[in-house]
Design goal:
3 domains, Enolase-like, domain 1, flavoprotein, single chain, disulfide bond, flavin adenine dinucleotide binding, alpha/beta, oxidoreductase
């Protein structure tokens, strides 16, 4: 008999934690997981899944308008926030149930409570129960970062935005990253007046400059207002329930809601990590090696809590690699090169590999190819919005080292194209591929 209650105890039942739990259990490990919020984590409960459903809902605003040019006699339509909100939350409930069923079917014990570390191989639940485990995996994800300033308590984050009682007529969104731009597009399509306030002068840092400039141009054309170099000073709640946002270098803005989307931080506070010797970096992330092991040999971490790449599929890969390596006898290391990403803005962005600036700094001699065009659907609909595809090529080897796209269905197209970049294919390989016509994706093999 083992001296421990479990072979593995996982703190956090998000994407990485659930994957690690069920794979470890499938390898024969005795596994328990503690989740203080809801099974499914950020992605399923308050992140990419409900967000993408709102994105789908927002797209109907343009689709219904464009349908008239395609012969459909569409009556004037009214958007009902309550219906979409409740349907999205019901879908979240359904998915949470499926995640729970997955853990149950793999005989993973689930404690729906908070767990903290009290030793390298021991945790304490909120009710005082102490549990030992040979190994402990931290998979508590990230949490929205809210800067401290007077009145910040009047703002909401991406955690609360899915539960709004009513659709705000005026929304101020703080931040310039993917969350800020995605919700700006969503609320704008729903008819809200949207203002993005950024303390810096750039949106979507890390994405290719031409692509992010194109999104800025299109967003402004759609009516989204941008305030740059305008840090928050305070938020004042007025007698009528509205909010007045005071900014540096900018006039005050009155809004019905303020959404703080200034990034996410590793969710490590209060877990007892430092007390048992787990090293954290300056941002509070758990330091791990390539095997996901922390400075304490019995404690591991995967997902956003390590602040490597904050993407759900990466957390899933890390959870799988951990379980296969430790319990399956299949040592696995996650490869972080050429990880594709998307921004579900309006229109969306897809990207993989190096940006033009990164490629010039690293490779020196590069070639770039672009296609700047209107999608066929937009032409007939009378919509002037243009898509932009960009390919970065290593001039010395002809290898495609980056693909960046903005336009309808860009993430769907990029996923398949990312395989080619990951495989190290060349521009000649793209050129040798026959185009699939008529499609937007064919532009990738017709770049000159």
């Amino acid at each position: 008999m083992s001296e421990f209650d479990y072979d593995l105890f996982v703190i956090g039942a998000g994407s990485g934690g659930v994957r690690a739990s069920r794979i470890a259990a499938s390898h024969g490990a005795r596994v328990a997981v503690a989740e203080e919020h809801r099974v499914g984590g950020t992605c399923v409960i308050r992140g990419c899944v409900p967000k993408k459903l709102l994105v789908y809902g927002a797209h109907f605003a343009e689709d219904i308008h464009d349908a008239r040019k395609f012969g459909w006699e569409v009556a004037d339509c009214k958007f009902n926030w309550d219906v979409l909100r409740d349907n999205v939350l019901a879908e979240v409930d359904r998915l949470e149930g499926l995640y729970g069923q997955t853990l149950d079917s793999h005989k993973v014990t689930v404690f729906k409570t908070r767990a903290t570390l009290i030793g390298p191989q021991k945790v304490r639940l909120a009710d005082g129960q102490e549990i030992s485990a040979e190994r402990i995996l931290i998979a508590t994800g990230g949490w929205p970062f809210v800067p401290e300033f007077p009145g910040s308590e009047h703002a909401i984050t991406s955690n609360e935005v899915f539960h709004l009682d009513k659709l705000p007529k005026r929304v101020v969104i703080a931040g310039g990253g993917y969350i800020a731009n995605e919700f700006a597009g969503i609320f704008n399509e729903f008819g809200s007046k949207v203002t993005i306030v950024n303390r810096g002068d750039t949106i979507l840092r890390g994405y290719d400059e031409q692509i992010r400039d194109r999104l800025l141009q299109i967003s402004m054309t759609k009516g989204i207002d941008f305030k740059f170099n305008a840090p928050f000073q305070s938020i004042e709640k007025n007698d009528d329930g509205t909010l007045t946002v005071h900014l540096e270098n900018c006039d005050a803005i009155t809004a019905d809601a303020v959404l703080i989307a200034t990034g996410r931080t590793p969710n490590t506070k209060g877990l007892g990590l430092e007390d048992v010797g787990v090293e954290l970096d300056a941002h509070g992330a758990i330091k791990v090696d390539e095997t996901n092991q922390s400075s304490v040999p019995s404690i591991y971490a995967v997902g956003d809590v390590t602040n490597r790449i904050q993407l759900t599929p990466v957390a899933i890969r890390e959870g799988q690699a951990f379980a296969d390596s430790v319990f399956g006898g299949k040592p696995t290391v996650v490869d972080y090169t050429n990880v594709p990403s998307a921004v579900f803005s309006h229109p969306p962005i897809g990207a993989v590999g190096m940006t033009e600036a990164e490629a010039r700094n690293k490779l020196g001699s590069i070639r770039t190819y672009t296609s700047d065009f209107r999608a066929m659907k937009n032409v007939l609909a009378g919509r002037n919005e243009r898509a932009l595809y960009k390919m970065i090529v290593n001039a010395a080897t002809d290898q495609v080292v980056g693909l960046h796209m903005i336009g309808p269905d860009a993430p769907e197209i990029l996923q398949a194209a990312a395989i080619a970049v990951k495989a190290g294919l060349t521009k000649a390989d793209f050129d040798a591929t026959v185009a699939l016509h008529p499609s937007m994706a064919e532009e990738l093999v017709l770049l000159k």
